[in-house]
Amino acid sequence: xxxxxxxxxxxxxxxxxxxxxxxxxxxxxxxxxxxxxxxxxxxxxxxxxxxxxxxxxxxxxxxxxxxxxxxxxxxxxxxxxxxxxxxxxxxxxxxxxxxxxxxxxxxxxxxxxxxxxxxxxxxxxx
Length: 126
Fold this sequence. Notes:
Blueprint: E1 3-6, E2 11-16, E3 33-37, E4 42-47, E5 57-66, H1 77-87, E6 93-96, E7 101-106, H2 110-119, E8 123-125
Parallel strand pairs: 1-8
Antiparallel strand pairs: 1-5, 2-4, 2-5, 3-4, 5-7, 6-7
């Protein structure tokens, strides 16, 4: 199955207006930062510690990173991860990068998420 690493720092998922400039605080993130702009929003997911109070955000999430570089031809990687989490009743958010996938779970759900993933045969390094 898969090996997943739990990132050390909690992350916050921020939603800003679509025409907002990327705020300077975003560039202070050291463990995790991803920025997406659509016609509806500017979405920033970053180390929780760099997001100023008052910023519209869902805070305290934990990111689990699929270890290694994944080939674009692989099929069903995310499904293998989110299926046991869904069966455990845990909401998730998924972020994919060029190299790998990240699954975000609420910090309060991290222990339950790790258990569900390990029962499904995955190895989680916390």
